[in-house]
Amino acid sequence: MEFVRYPAGKLAYRRIGSGTEVWIFFHGFGQCHQDMLAFEKVRTPKQSFLFVDLIYHGRSSWNTSEKPLKKNEWKTILLSLLQQESIDTFHLVGYSMGGKFALLSYELLSERISSLSLLAPDGIKTGLWYSMSNYPSGIHPLFKRVVFRPQRFFTLVDNLKTAGLLQKSLVKFVKTQLETRSKRAQVYLVWKVLGGLHLQLGAIIRKLRQHPIQVTVFLGDFDNMVSPKNLERFTSKVPNLRLILLPVGHGQLIEATVSYLRVDREKV
Questions:
Q1: pTM, full prediction
Q2: Nearest 5°: CA angle at 125, between 40 and 218?
Q3: 75, 106, 132, 264: least buried by Cβ within 10 Å?
Q4: Which of 263, 261, 232 is nearest to 115 (CA)?
């Protein structure tokens, strides 16, 4: 692993390949760079892949939860990574929360990004229970109680499922993310440090219309958290955008996307 070090912590990443065409990968919430390594199956000799651990994931760190990440800080971190690896332009791939970071990176450095591949991206519009890192600060006390004393919350979730108000897949997702104290602590820290990052979708769409690049969005047919309807505000306004639906749920989308790309490697 390599590291980009900055005053508030460090960003870990792994580089595979020595080609001049660079692709940077951002994983989803609760994952690390290893969850994106399946994409290595579609790498060609001309390509280099950089797999990043996002903050509070893998070996990346943030020194204090009392200091939220700001957009200008993420831009500085990203520029340091590009300088350290001698990267000029690059392609971005992001899954789930990593999709939000891919869009944020485009918002900040659009002139250096050659394409966007987004797998069920967060940050546009997703289900209430899904956006773990995106809750408003006004519910801070409630969320803290849920994270560190989840029993009543789990009971409520089960009752809502029994009443038909929550889908089984959403209940499974929430419980998986909160099943251990360490996972609940990660949710809380990610929310505190990253929860204030909000995409300027209007600005992103304007940039994509003024200077079109290839944008590919991969969604799962059985994904109840990120659906075509959720993303319609974005996908309907972006030129050169291809929407690809795959017969899987949210958790199987990475492998399904890789399998799709192995059939035709030009569809990245």
A1: 0.86
A2: 30
A3: 264
A4: 261
